Amino acid sequence: MAMELSDANLQTLTEYLKKTLDPDPAIRRPAEKFLESVEGNQNYPLLLLTLLEKSQDNVIKVCASVTFKNYIKRNWRIVEDEPNKICEADRVAIKANIVHLMLSSPEQIQKQLSDAISIIGREDFPQKWPDLLTEMVNRFQSGDFHVINGVLRTAHSLFKRYRHEFKSNELWTEIKLVLDAFALPLTNLFKATIELCSTHANDASALRILFSSLILISKLFYSLNFQDLPEFFEDNMETWMNNFHTLLTLDNKLLQTDDEEEAGLLELLKSQICDNAALYAQKYDEEFQRYLPRFVTAIWNLLVTTGQEVKYDLLVSNAIQFLASVCERPHYKNLFEDQNTLTSICEKVIVPNMEFRAADEEAFEDNSEEYIRRDLEGSDIDTRRRAACDLVRGLCKFFEGPVTGIFSGYVNSMLQEYAKNPSVNWKHKDAAIYLVTSLASKAQTQKHGITQANELVNLTEFFVSHILPDLKSANVNEFPVLKADGIKYIMIFRNQVPKEHLLVSIPLLINHLQAESIVVHTYAAHALERLFTMRGPNNATLFTATEIAPFVEILLTNLFKALTLPGSSENEYIMKAIMRSFSLLQEAIIPYIPTLITQLTQKLLAVSKNPSKPHFNHYMFEAICLSIRITCKANPAAVVNFEEALFLVFTEILQNDVQEFIPYVFQVMSLLLETHKNDIPSSYMALFPHLLQPVLWERTGNIPALVRLLQAFLERGSNTIASAAADKIPGLLGVFQKLIASKANDHQGFYLLNSIIEHMPPESVDQYRKQIFILLFQRLQNSKTTKFIKSFLVFINLYCIKYGALALQEIFDGIQPKMFGMVLEKIIIPEIQKVSGYVEKKICAVGITKLLTECPPMMDTEYTKLWTPLLQSLIGLFELPEDDTIPDEEHFIDIEDTPGYQTAFSQLAFAGKKEHDPVGQMVNNPKVHLAQSLHKLSTACPGRVPSMVSTSLNAEALQYLQGYLQEASVTLL
Amino acid sequence: MLTGAPEGRLRKFKYRGKDTAMRRQQRIAVSLELRKAKKDEQALKRRNITPLSPDPASEQQTKVVINLTLQEIINGVNASDPDLCFQATQAARKMLSRERNPPLKLIIEAGLIPRLVEFLKSSLHPCLQFEAAWALTNIASGTSEQTRAVVEGGAIQPLVELLSSPHMTVCEQAVWALGNIAGDGPEFRDIVISSNVIPQLRALISSTTPITFLRNITWTLSNLCRNKNPYPCERAVKQMLPVLSRLLQHQDSEVLSDACWALSYLTDGCNDRIGQVVDIGVLPRLVELMTSSELNVLTPSLRTVGNIVTGTDHQTQVAIDAGMLSVLPQLLMHPKSSIQKEAAWALSNVAAGPCQHIQQLIACGMLPPLVALLKNGEFKVQKEAVWTVANFTTGGTVDQLIQLVRSGVLEPLVNLLTIQDPKIVLIILDIISFILQAADVLSEKENLCLLIEELGLDRIEALQLHENRQVARTALNIIENHFCEEEENGVMLPALDQDPEFLKRLTKKD
Fold first, then answer.
1. pLDDT bracket for residue A916 (50, 70, 90)
2. pLDDT for residue B28
3. What percentage of chain A reaches a pLDDT higher than 70?
4. Which pLDDT score, from 0 to 100, does residue B446 have?
5. Would you say A578 and A559 are in contact if contact means Cβ atoms under 8 Å apart?
6. Is A279 on the interface with B (CB under 8 A)?
7. CA angle, B311 as apex, B184 and B18 as ends, to 5°?
8. Which of A143, A600, A887, B376 has its CA 20 to 30 A from that of B298?
9. For residue A537, which phi and psi values (nearest 5 degrees)?
10. How far apart are CA A393 and CA A286, in angstroms?
């Protein structure tokens, strides 16, 4: 269907776009849905492009450009087996216009279009977009730096993937093509731009544009040189490196910014040059060697002269990282080994960059989330402190003694300074702790690595004399930074500090859950969570529930209270600590459950209005599951109480279609339903028809949870379904049919099918059986994958166990004569070795045993010739290692390749299903079971079995078989 | 019950179903290069350049003819007087032999080639033949197009005939010219071969052949072995192998160098090709040459042996028996990084073999230098060393794995996780994951996890955010499978806080 490129349509589109910006979800969501519903129409993208070019309203222009980019992101890629979502004419028109449009748009829109170009380029460039490169290179000559920067930005977004993709012929062919067309013009542009910089040295606005170009050019340099050192750049290394070196040492007052936070153009350019130099030093050492000492000097000078402001952070950290990577190379050792140099590096580079700065203090107080992420989760990769630590590590490689000596002195003097006047000098202690931490982690490596430990610090002693006192102080709100440092010290060295000291810290940590500082109470929660997961001997938790028992009440109280502290209402660390405490304490929490579950459901209700913290939500649902499990393990009847408490909120979540929570709700419901011992309650049955609605199944994230829930329904209520909801069986099979058609979800389809076969009364599915098999065969023919085959094998063997071997043979041959033989020969015998999983293998073993011993056609038709090969493959299944080879073409089939990955399924560990064994106690030892069954068969037709076995079974298999017979104490007659 | 011995399970892991042969092949297939051609490779074509300071006698002559303009040369070459022809040809040759900017293009465009080819046939004037052959040699040393002009001018057949010229200088120049033509590529190489040149070259070799001549012959032979797609035909190879084997016994380093290069070309291919070289019994001598102090001998002999160990287990065994593993440690420590790289590459292919080979590799003390290279080698060397470890881990026994870990391999591997090369990072992650699985079977996992944590688990954690999905996913799997807390009931907790997609969404402000 096509939408006309008419004013009326432009008007409509404008209105809906406007609505998508509305803060009220009641207005926003329908508008988003509407746009999604029309985006498949021809001309839709062209309407958006028209709007972003011609609309009078700037907001609409930007909105159209973002919508356009997202549309391209979702639809441009042509996925195999799926319809092409953008018609060819639109594709051609977009490619013909977008570069020009991008270059003539204001920057905000240019960025969106540039992103869109790179998405399109990822799919179409170079084959399906051959003129793109020439079109771009030609613009270099335009002399208009607005245009040139647009081109450079686009080139950067197209080429930056060279930085992370694997070498392949396809990739390198593309890079070669790009180099041929692009390297020389880029080099010329680089030189010309630098010249222009000196002609315009006094023109600030011109300089800003030119420096933006230089930054982009330097980024392109990095991408183009990433995979290997191209011939062109080796030949022109002189030009590039000399200019990089000059730029590194360049300063121009006009480019300095007043802003303390945001990096200026000079800083951005220099840090990119540091990256470029580091890349060359790391990968192309031989060719780069003669330039390297000059860069070391320049970067070293840069570090000594650069200030503490935040805007220099990236530059400083990149510069330090460069030094760190160079100083551990043996042939550059000489550049650092002088004692003065070392002292100077420690004093002027490392120590200043480890200091707690005003900006850190600000972040600690006002932007604690960011602070925690940087400090705790190791996303501090670009921070100065992290870089300084890495430099310490690097220097210790060759100069451990001198470096340790220099720093020991520092630590002591800083602690002394602190002791003199804590309230003024607390930052000194912070730096001392940081220095100890960075040096000590190094020492650990040494200890377990090869030689001696770094004796600088006795970790336990430091803990007792410098960390514990801070945490014991009565005022939890005093010196919050040092409190956080102390708690972090416990976390980091929890494996080194003896248990008795840790046990002492636990009540102190619980106490700090009340601290006002977000960082402090978050760290306290996190530390507790970490301590509770520690393992002692025998893999049991290091701390037992008994050891924690004295603190249970205060622990739980403080944890939930912490959630009421300002800024922490959805604090994921606290929620995780709650979950972990439940898990450690087990029955000890039962007395508190009524309060706990009330608090949790209230929280759930509150956050479901606008779920924004995925981790928090996840742990909250885990905590709910734990409450249910722990309570119902002791008292199954209590399940009703949970249903009472939860169903109201659940209903609201389902009715409001809170997408993020629906998979969780289904998982919790599965857990509740499985806890019921008797027949399925009617409240659940009322929900059953709704679960089959196609719309629910369209969201990938729902599928595993829904399948799980349907399985629970089948397990507990198959009879009820057969009697009271038989008209829903086709719907159920419809779900199966939909799932089975998808490579990503077919295994889920099999889970469902297996539950149907296992639990539904046979007569209720009789009429559908043949159709099920036909569907499976169609999928086998159309797109056979290893995963499908494995599931298929488990299914047919389960069917054989449930309905009998003869029934299996008959259903195959009923579809097409001799089909059964083909399945044996082409699928079961050659592929059975691929089946994985204990239960899966057991099902297959028992199923095949049935085929061998309870299927008359196997004994006296043309199928008889397959009897021994089948037995042979069964013995293989018992004895040989699993065949986990995957054909090359399947390597890249992955769940994540399916569209809609963004709504990924989050499995709740504590809603976990126990592994279900449909064979169960019926067969304990499948090998013995095989022996017994063969024996029984041989009594029915004496003489035949031994002769079949001895004539064509291979010697090794025969030996194994004799072992089974012996184990079962039977013989073949 | 249903699983085999731990050993069997481990070996099954391999490179996700890729067998030894494939792991080896992976190491040799380089079809596309972004880099400059390597400097230490053998010359494809060579120009015969007049020395800058010729002796006084010839200087006299030079002065006479140097004044000839291109037009005069054209006239002279096309004259009927043999003397004029000679003078003009010599002048042309001298122009073509200038150190800088020889006018190859001009001479071709002047249409001189057909005349020069004609002169090759004037057996009454060996001096003219010599000058013409020299001029053609230098034209053929140019671009492919220029070589083609010589071939299309019909030069090959008369040049081959000159191989039986009674005048040695003429003969030698013809050998050189043919070498340049053959060096251009498989097409011309095969034309030269099919002109029956090999038996004639063979006939030129005797104990009295002057050394410079012998060098030329060897070099030309090496060009006849050179290039694949297609390789030189089986028959030609069979003819050349005994000659090369004989040349390999020579003492002159240039002869040895080119003979080794020839063998390196012949072994750069499928196992059948390698087999032919192995079968003539040259391996002990090649291994001996790997200890040469001459870089131009060491490089190609090492390359050849390196090629041979990409072959079958048996072929590799022959190389091991010839003593290659006792020579490799010193080459791994060679001052030149290109030798280190080549040696590490050879080692990686031995490590791709059965565990007996790996055992010999350990016995020859290869682990310490390997670890040293991982620590301090240049990146291109580290890369090969990583491959070696990867092959070792997938093919070694549990005991061998233990020795590998004890040799301290993990520390440099973890350090290398920050290298700007996603493929190498991925391989290291695979190695770590594999070693962890092995440790699990031996109930040593806890210690190993501790070790890795201390070496820098944060690097693996950071890789979960890598732009390359496969890298991110592998890192995630390692963290999930080996570094996540296990609950009492055996349920793994979600490593949610490390989900790469997740964090990206959280941090992206778009």
1. confident
2. 47
3. 95
4. 77
5. yes
6. yes
7. 110
8. B376
9. -65, 160
10. 24
* Residues of A with Cβ-Cβ distance to B507 under 8 angstroms: 379
- Integer Cα distance of A232 and A219 in angstroms: 17
A824 and A863 in contact (C-beta within 8 Å)?
Answer: yes
Taking an 8 Å cut-off on Cβ atoms, the answer to whether A176 and B461 are in contact is: no
Q: A42 pairs with which residues across the strands?
A: A2
Nearest to A164 among B1, B455, B467 (CB): B467
Locate A811 and state its tokens. Answer: 């259903």
| Greatest C-alpha distance within chain B | 104
Give per-residue burial for B450-484: e unless 16+ CB within 10 Å, then b. ebbbbbbbbbbbbbbbbebbbbbbbbbebbbebbb
- The residue to which tokens 């009703």 are assigned: A640
Direct distance between the N- and C-terminal alpha carbons of chain A, in angstroms, rounded to an integer: 73
B32, A279: Cβ pair inside 8 Å?
no
Q: How far is CA B277 from the centre of its chain?
A: 16
Whether chain B has a CB inside 8 Å of the CB on A165: the answer is: yes
Give the ipTM: 0.80
Residue at B209: amino acid letter: T
AA identity, residue B128: L
Interaxial angle between packed helices A169-199 and A204-224, expressed in degrees from 0 to 180 and rounded to the nearest 10: 160
| CB contacts < 8 A (A, B) | 146
For residues A258-269, one letter each, b for 16 or more C-beta atoms within 10 angstroms of the residue's C-beta and e for the rest, the string is: eeeeebbbbbbb
Structure tokens at A499: 């248990």
Confidence label for A251 from pLDDT (cuts 50, 70 and 90): confident
A385: its two tokens? 């402190």
Does A895 reach chain B within 8 Å, measured CB to CB? no
Q: Is A727 on the interface with B (CB under 8 A)?
A: no
Distance CA(A311)–CA(A870), nearest Å, equals 71
Which of A445, A496, A894, A956 to probe the B interface (max B CBs under 10 A)? Answer: A445
**Cβ–Cβ of B423/A167 closer than 8 Å?**
yes
Nearest to B419 among A282, A447, A877 (CB): A282
Contacting residues for A427 by C-beta, under 8 A, at least 6 apart:
A355, A356, A481
| pLDDT tens profile A621-678 | 999 999 999 999 999 999 999 999 999 999 999 989 898 899 999 999 999 999 998 7
pTM of the model: 0.72
B367, B420, B501, B505: best to mutate for the A interface, most A CBs within 10 A: B420
- The structure tokens listed for B154 are 């019909």
CA distance A575 to A579: 6
Which of B95, B113, B182 lies closest to B149, judged by CA?
B113
Alpha-carbon span A818 to A173, nearest angstrom: 50
Record: contact B501-A172, CB cut-off 8 A: no
**Nearest-CB residue to A285 (from B378, B491, B505):** B378
pLDDT of amino acid A376: 74
**pLDDT for the residue numbered B199:** 95
pLDDT of residue A952: 82
Return the pLDDT at A508: 97
pLDDT at B454 exceeding the cut of 90: no
Q: Give the Cα separation of B202 and B200 in Å (integer).
A: 5
Report yes or no: A83 at the B interface, CB cutoff 8 Å.
no
- Tokens for A687, please give them: 């929900």
Instruction: Measure CB to CB from residue B420 to each of A235, A283, A882 and give the nearest one.
Output: A283
**ω before A30 within 30° of 0 (cis)?**
no
Model confidence at A899: pLDDT above 60: no
Crossing angle of helices B313-321 and B324-332, in 10° steps, is 80
Could you tell me the two tokens for A420?
């003199």
Please list, in sequence order, all residues whose beta carbon lies within 8 angstroms of the beta carbon of residue B203, skipping any fewer than 6 positions away: none
